[in-house]
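Office hours follow-up: a student asked to see two folded examples consecutively, so here they are.
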Amino acid sequence: MTSVKIDVAAFNAALKRVAVIASANPAVKFETGVLNLSLLERNAIQQALAQSNGNKTAAAHLLGISRRTLQRKLQDILHS
């Protein structure tokens, strides 16, 4: 089993970004008021791409993920 270290400060910062996205976009909530993680992720990706003027490397940096991970997530979105 592989051990994974989590940077607590980075994790807390990511949670704050998710909270900001959720509060700014009520469409990411189900009718029950429960947050939809897939929609939160899609919205975060859209916002990062908009802020970076479509630059995937910069968008990935904003999201705290690799460019390859962003590319995979974009492919998943396209095929969903």
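And the second, which I mentioned at the end of office hours:
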Amino acid sequence: MRRRQALDMSQEELARLVGVSRYTVSNWEIGKHFPKRYLGKLEAVLGISLEPPDDPPLSPEVQAVLDGLTPGQRARAMEQLRAADARLRGRAGDSAGRPPARPRRAS
């Protein structure tokens, strides 16, 4: 909301630019819903990153690849990176909800 207001943009205008209703924008702003599906469009319109703060650290090479993607592609790539990071850390299953694979025993 602060970024939208800093740009002197109404909820109606943001909704039109992103392709949703003003009611949807209002729900995002009050925290009722997270705009996952529209993350790339919101980032492009607002000129900011809306990625969660617990993203895995990225190497300069990976960051360079991400910088070359469209906002939608970047959002999908970051989702995949978060899922891979979670699997590697054993925190959760993959993005499809499957549990992490068990390590194989040495023969």
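Two things to take away from it. Residues 52-95 form one domain. The chain has two domains: 1-50, 52-95.
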